[in-house]
Amino acid sequence: MTEPIVRYNQVSKYFGDLQVLNKIDFDIMPGEKVALIGPSGSGKTTFARLLMTLESLSSGTIQVDGQYLWHEEKDGKLVKASSKHLREVRQNIGMVFQHFHLFPHMTVLENVMEAQVTVKKTPEKEAEKISKDMLDKVGLLEKADVYPAQLSGGQKQRVAIARALVMKPKVMIFDEPTSALDPELVGEVLEIIKEIADEGEMAMLLITHEMDFALEVADRIAFFDGGKIVEQGSPEQMINNPETPRLNEFLSRFNATNSL
Amino acid sequence: MSTLEILGSLLKEGLLVTVSLTFFSAILALVLGFGSGLARMSKSKIIWFIAGTYVELFRGTSLLVQLFFIYFVLPMFGLRMSAMVAAVLAIGLNFGAYTSEVVRSAVQAIDVGQREASVALNMTRQQMMRRIIIPQAFIRMIPNLGNQLIELFKSTSLVSLITLTDLTYQANVLNGSTLETTKIYTLLLLIYFVLAWPLTKGMNVLERKLTEGRF
């Protein structure tokens, strides 16, 4: 039996007194594409940010490829991870943000090369080749030498995807990757994500409001509500036969807005 | 005494002192400013406290008094130094404290998304600061640093009070011996203005070069 690439175990998260995640257990298998859906404030973004170490755990554990992310084992006990340990485990995770967060002082090529050179210590020549190949793949090789400010939103997001991909993570988080885009630019980004998904080997955690896209790409959909995963299953099952009234309500509201 | 003669004797010795004083104390201020500005964001309480104390101490007292203190009081505790060293130290320390605030606020103004992207690319905190945060913060600092540089340049005239023979000192000496007060101080004003001009322009050009097409 294959081991999960990511395992959440009894994960809770509080912001002050507010509980955003309530004792969540969740496994992601290697190469699996999981879409997270749910109303805003349901905890799905926090759930993903914990994995990227952008928020700290309140309780529970997260394991990545069998290693604890936020903890390490010392004398048979779990203690808070050192930053060295955290970074070692974190190299398996990558993330694409809603607002891209490209580095504005670097060209497109430099953006994609940066972490390969500074973090992975890839020789510059090699990193340049890898980066150009990746930019070619996302259709932006001719923009290699321009600054992000000169790109459209869709182009920025494609650069951000290339920047994350060259680090070769085993799990990639997409946090509402098209929510900040003009409607006519959504397609080009979804197309790239679909292409990556079809290649298979990388697991994906996709937070999205694009229900059709989730249906097309995801192996499994998890529905978040009130800090819990209320329901999960295959896309067909979730969309066509929602079991819980909350999901039913969420989907019908969704269809209502979409058909307007 | 003709105007030209006055100009000549003002510039002959004073110019070099004023310019080199500006140069060395600006470098010291920049180093101290960056050091303490970044230290004030440190997680270490001790580093944070030392930097904070330095900044508050030197922002909260007058440069002139600091200058007197370093030049006249420290020797009583066995710390003897030349007027030039005392002046560079006083001006550098004083402006370093202001620069510290410029550095800190520019770094803190960088969008949190830049930090998150750095974490997602698995950078260390040091790599993030060096490659992502500081280069962007530096561009934001330039207008403020430019203002500070001009302020620093003009404040070097205070050193004439600890016997350093800068432009202002030379003007005072000349005034004492010739009583051509109007000519001398008008020329002195003009000299400072002409020297400050390229500093202002230079900073503008630097800012434009660094932001071209990027922001």
UniProtKB/TrEMBL annotation, chain A:
PROSITE patterns: ABC_TRANSPORTER_1 (PS00211), ABC_TRANSPORTER_2 (PS50893). It is a peripheral membrane protein. It comes from the Bacteria. GO terms for cellular component: plasma membrane. It is found in: Cell membrane. Residues 6-251 form the ABC transporter domain. Keywords: Amino-acid transport, ATP-binding, Cell membrane, Membrane, Nucleotide-binding, Transport. Its main location: membrane. It holds the Pfam family ABC_tran. GO terms for molecular function: ABC-type amino acid transporter activity; ATP binding; ATP hydrolysis activity. Belongs to the ABC transporter superfamily. PANTHER family: AMINO ACID IMPORT ATP-BINDING PROTEIN, GLUTAMATE_ASPARTATE IMPORT ATP-BINDING PROTEIN GLTL. This is Amino acid ABC transporter ATP-binding protein, PAAT family.
TrEMBL record, chain B:
GO terms for molecular function: transmembrane transporter activity. Its main location: membrane. Pfam families: BPD_transp_1. It comes from the Bacteria. It is a multi-pass membrane protein. GO terms for biological process: amino acid transport. It is found in: Cell membrane. Keywords: Amino-acid transport, Cell membrane, Membrane, Transmembrane, Transmembrane helix, Transport. This is Amino acid ABC transporter membrane protein 1, PAAT family. SUPFAM superfamilies: MetI-like. One of its GO terms (cellular component) is ATP-binding cassette (ABC) transporter complex. The chain crosses the membrane at residues 15-34, 46-71, 184-200. The keyword Transmembrane applies. Residues 15-196 form the ABC transmembrane type-1 domain. Belongs to the binding-protein-dependent transport system permease family.
